[in-house]
Amino acid sequence: MGKILPTVVSTVGGNSTLFLDQDLRTGCVKSATGCGLAPELHAAFAPACEAGMLAPWMDNLGSGIARRSSAVISDRAFASSDFYEKTVRPTGTFHSATAALDYAASHRGFIAIGRRLGSDDYDSQSIEVLQVLVPHLVTALRVRHQLGDAELQTRSAYAMLDRLDAGIVLTDASARPRFVNARAGAIAAEGDGFCLGSRGIAAALPTETRALRRAIAAAATITTKLTQSDTTDTIVQSATSAMQTTLPLSRPSLRPPLTAFVMPLSEAMLEGTTGALSQVAVFLIEPDRPPEIDTRALGETYRLAPREIQVATLLAQGRTLAEIACQLGIGLGTVREHLKRVLAKTETRRQANLVRLLLRAFVKPVR
Hints:
The protein has three domains: about 140 residues, 2-Layer Sandwich (Beta-Lactamase); about 140 residues, Beta-Lactamase, CATH 3.30.450; about 70 residues, Winged helix-like DNA-binding domain superfamily/Winged helix DNA-binding domain (Arc Repressor Mutant, subunit A), CATH 1.10.10. The strands form three sheets. Strands 2-1-5-4-3 form a five-stranded antiparallel sheet. The chain has a five-stranded antiparallel sheet with strand order 7-6-12-11-10, with helices on both faces. The protein has 16 helices and twelve strands. With about 375 residues, the protein is α+β, with helices and mostly antiparallel strands. The two termini are about 40 Å apart. The protein is globular and about 55 Å long.
């Protein structure tokens, strides 16, 4: 399994990587793979996961949050645990950087990048690097899961892509769009950093257009190597490819640049309704677009009053308390009182924790 996760290992600064894919309906681990260790050592983590030994790392820190293992359990307690003695110790590793990747209601991934016993623990910079990669992995897992089951050529799958809040363009190797979802169409219509032309997708600057088209052409060369039966290997290759081809697209309006992620797609899934083959997916992320909070779910979960929901939502969208007061037409002191009640009801205690909760659990995945 040498092809899996080498880029992740080198980028984060580890020696080996474990990737688990678990079916939450049964609790069974579908695959336990990685790089830097013998296959039987990776496989030993599957029964450990199913027995709940990995639950502190997979359940307690929140999905999509990169953490060092020592943030969950002290080194001394970890070294004396059965999990370390029976499962981790044979791998020759100790410290690890981890993240749970909830990519579907019924499936979850888990990644752990290990360092050899005796090595220093991960520093904050290394954890930040993994945090940058986590959304790419989740995106790859989610797309693979959704499109693999629905088959992209069906109308229902295109409708699903149309509802995603990120811009998605499916292209051939020459960057000619074969499918453009609603959000990508709206971004292109603004004419601010990304457009859809007769010669293919383009950026505002010629140099960025060339870089984008080179990335698409390179990703398309991977397509012929992917099959519908590919699992973790394909997912991770796609995710690391996306990470390596992250492209900023400047916007003439001087707003923060768009971010484009380029990912190869399996040829078996991609024959469109026109018969033209889509080989590459380009994801467009708008860093300055505020997240859309599911206010109904938030209010029902924590029994928040309408004004409390408004304050919490605006706070999660990056507004200051003064800006919230101005927008809602109420006093700053009143905003603080609403926020105080929200913090109490959600048991988050601090603004940063409240924002983290909302962004993790109540952002709408579709429009």
